[in-house]
Predict the 3D structure of the following.
Amino acid sequence: MATTASAGHVGATPALRRLYVFRFVFAAAWAALLLVSGSELTVGAKLLLILYPAFDVAAAVVDSRSTRSGGAPVKGLYANIAISSLAAAGIAIAGTSGVADVLRVWGAWAILSGLVQLLVGAARRPMGGQWAMIASGGISVLAGATFVRSATQDNPSLTSLAGYATLGGIFFLVSAFRLPRTESRP
């Protein structure tokens, strides 16, 4: 059984590596755009805030398709698709109420998706390069709690979300480089 899972993981690693690098690039660009837009809930900022979990949905779909073909478990990815879809809708609704409500929804999403990322990373340990995903999931849970708490402060700010995205992107990049390279043999 372990041999089958390992063979499935080996087939999925090149696609996963590309996806992880793309997630890093997206997170870095998104964070820069959020910082430029400031902490006000402008139309542009709202669209950026909705885009991040929507991108997470798309990335989880790509991930599930590439790893499913290799025989790897994908239930956690399906859970992440549902959680991130609800988060995008929740952020769209919360964006009409103010920064504090956006931070509450974002925080809840960070906690739930962080737990899923931690579990998916742990399940993928045999493929290698997953310690960064496990750590990122744990940090996401802690950051989510911080976002929920910061929503109760006077003048809550969205700028901390840029740091969250940047750190998450760095963890994806580290994981991309830590995934084992496969060699083609004749």
Notes: The two ends are 25 Å apart (CA to CA). The chain is about 80% helix and 0% strand. Residues 34 and 167 are 14 Å apart (CA to CA). Helices lie at 2-37, 43-68, 75-94, 99-123, 131-150, 160-178.
